[in-house]
Amino acid sequence: MKKHRVTFLPDTKKVEVTEGTTLIEAAEKAGVYLNSLCGGEGVCGKCRVQVMKEKVKIDQNSIAFFTKDEIEKGYVLACQTPVRENIEVLIPPESRLEEEQILKESIENQRKTWREGSSIHYSEPDWVSLHKRPNDPASLFEPLTAKIYLELPKPSIDDNIPDSARIVRELGRRLKYPSYEMALSCLRDLFIKLRRSDWKVTVTLLRHNDVGQIIQIEEGHTADRNFGVAADIGTTTVVAQLVDLKTGRVVGVEGNHNLQARYGEDVLSRIAYVCGKGSLDHLQKAVIENINVLIQALAREKGVNVEEITCIVAAGNTTMSHILLGLMPCSIREDPYVPTVDLYPPILGKEIGITIHPQGILHVLPSIASYIGGDTVAGVLACHMADRPETTCLIDIGTNGEIVVGNNEWLLSCSASAGPAFEGGDTKWGMRATRGAIQKVEFDDGRVLYETIGKVKPRGICGSGLIDLIYGLAKTKRLEIDAKFPSSLKEKRLIQGESGLEYIVAFPEETEKGEALTIAQTDIDNIMRSKAAIFAAIKSLIDYAGLRFDQLDKIYVAGGFGNYLNVEKAVAIGLLPDIPREKIEFVGNSSLMGARMVLLSYHVFEKAVGISQSITNIELSKFALFADEYMASLYLPHIDRERLFPSVK
C-alpha cells in the first residue's frame, strides 16, 4: 500500500499514513485531536478542516455542512476524507479539541468532605481496628491498601518455620485478619530480601473479602511511601487525584479531556461505534491512555514513583465502566437495556495496561442500572444521602441526567436523556466549556454583555452561557412563555436565518471567526427539550416517591455543568425546582469525592456495594406521568407556573 505524508497546520505536525486512511485517523496518529460528536459517521459536521493547495473531492453527504465559498477553499469533513496524496491540512479554531474547564472538585465541599480537613495519622496495629462510630463508615480510615513495617525474629533451630509463615505470623500479631494470601511475585525473591535487610521489611497489604492479600514485600522501612489514585471516568473528562494512603491527604489532582470523544460525543454514539465497527479496543485504549497520562503527570510533579501507587478506585457511568474493563456495552443500548454486569471484579491494573505497581489493584465502583452508574453511587456516598434521615435529592446534569432522591431508609433513582444541548451539541454555535466559549450573558438596556472563557473573542457558547441567554431573552420579553420569538419583536439583532429567526449575541466584528454568533429558534427548541427532560425526570421521581418539592431538605447539584450554573436563572427557566435557594447546593465533582472515600476506607467500599444493590431504579419510559410532565415542562418556566414556580415573575 502507498504511503502519504499529512502535515497538520498551524502546529506543523507531520505524519505518514497508508493511502485510504481518513484525515481524522491521520490526525489522531499525529497527536492532533479534532472535535467529533458522531464517532466518524459524518453527521455532526464538527470535524471541519481545510485542505491547503491540493484539491480533494468532497464527500457528497458532507456538502450540506459548507457554503459554496468554503467548498471552493477546500473545506471537508476529516472523518469522511481519505488521504490519496501528500497534503497539508489546516485545523480551524472551531474544530480543535482544546482543553476545557475541568471540574476537579468543589471548593465548598473541600471544607466538609470526609477526611479532607486535616492530616490523618494512625498506628499500624490499629489499621483494622480503629474506633468505629455506628452508622458512620466515614469515621473509618482504612485504606484499601496499607504498608506495615515488620521487624521479624531471625530463624533458629527452635523457630524454623518458613519465611512466608514468619511474615504471616507477625502480621497476625499486629492485625486481625483470619487468613493471609501472598502473591507469587512476593515469594520469588523473599529469601534474598529478608536476609539482605536483616529481617526488617515492609509488607503491602490489600484488604479483600476479609483476607489480607500480601502484594509486595520491600526491604527496610518504606511504610511512609504508599499512594492511591481516585479517578472520575467521565464521558467528557477524566480526572484523577493522587492520595497519600498513609495520611489520607490529597497530594495532587489533574484532569484531561476524554480521548474517547473522537469516537462519539455521548455514550450512545460510543456504543454504536463499538457495536457497529467492532472497535471496543480503540475506546478502551483511549481511556487507559487518559488515566496513564494523568498518573504519570501526578507522579512526576509530586516526586512519586508510579510503582508506589498500589491501588486505583474508578467511578464512571455504566458504559464508561464497561469500556474501561473491556466489556461489550451493546446490550445497554438495546431493549430491554441491561448491562453485562453491575458489580465489577477487582483486577490488577496491569491487566488492562494501567501503569502502577505490578500487583496494584483496580476497583471500579458498582453500577445501579444501564444509565445509572458508579459515578452516581459515588455521588450518593459523597453527599451522605444513605447515612442521614433527611430526605435529599441529587441531580447530575449532563447529556444524560441522573437523579436520586431518598434518605437512610430508602433511595430511588432515574435517568433522563437530556441530549447534548447543555454540553455544546444540537446548537449551531454550541461548544464545550473551552477557550473562547461564552459562559455568562447579561442584557443591559438593549446591549448584550458576555464573558468568554480565557477573556478572548467568542468562538461559541457553552451550557452555562445558553442558560443565561435563555433567561435574558425571556426576562426582556424577547421570548414568550412557549420559548418562541414574539411576532411583534423588531430589532436589529433579530434576523432571518437559513432555518428561521436567529438572535445575534455577538456581531461579526466581535467574534474570532468574523461571523455573527447567533442563537436560532431551532437552537432554543433543542435547549427547551433538554431542560424539559431534566425537570420532568426530577418531578416524576418526586411524584413517584409521594413527595412535594417543599418536603426536600436539600437538593445537591453535581457535575461540571451544574457547578457553573446561576441558580436563580436555572430556576427561572424551569431547569431546577423552585425551592428556597439555600436548599440548593452545588457539590462539584461528587464522583471523584466518592471514589476517594472508597479508596480511603474498605468499609465505604462495602457501603457503595450496598447502595448499588438497594437503590430502586425507576424506568421513566414505563412511568405514565413522565410524558405529560415533559410536555408541561416545555414552557418558561412551566405550564403550571403558579403552583410549581411561584417565585418566578
Task: Lay out the secondary structure.
Elements: E1 3-9, E2 13-18, H1 23-29, E3 48-52, H2 68-72, E4 75-77, E5 87-90, H3 107-110, E6 145-151, H4 163-174, E7 179-182, H5 184-188, H6 190-196, E8 200-208, E9 211-219, E10 227-233, E11 237-244, E12 250-257, H7 267-277, H8 280-302, E13 309-316, H9 318-324, H10 330-333, E14 347-348, E15 361-364, H11 374-382, E16 392-396, E17 400-406, E18 411-417, E19 437-444, E20 447-452, E21 460-461, H12 463-475, E22 494-497, E23 500-506, E24 517-520, H13 521-544, E25 554-558, H14 560-563, H15 567-572, E26 584-588, H16 590-599, H17 602-614, E27 616-617, H18 624-632, H19 641-644
Parallel strand pairs: 1-5, 7-9, 10-13, 13-15, 16-25, 18-27, 19-21, 25-26
Antiparallel strand pairs: 1-2, 3-4, 3-5, 6-8, 8-9, 10-11, 11-12, 14-15, 16-17, 17-18, 19-20, 22-23, 23-24
Helix pairs in contact: 11-16, 11-17, 13-18
| CATH class (first level) name of the largest domain | Alpha Beta
What is the 3D shape? globular
Low-confidence stretches: 106-134
Q: Based on the structure given, which CATH architecture of the largest domain is correct?
A: 2-Layer Sandwich
Determine Rg (CA atoms, Å): 27 Å
Spatial sequence of strands, sheet with the most strands: 12-11-10-13-15-14
- What is the CATH superfamily classification of the largest domain? ATPase, nucleotide binding domain
Distance between the termini: 68 Å
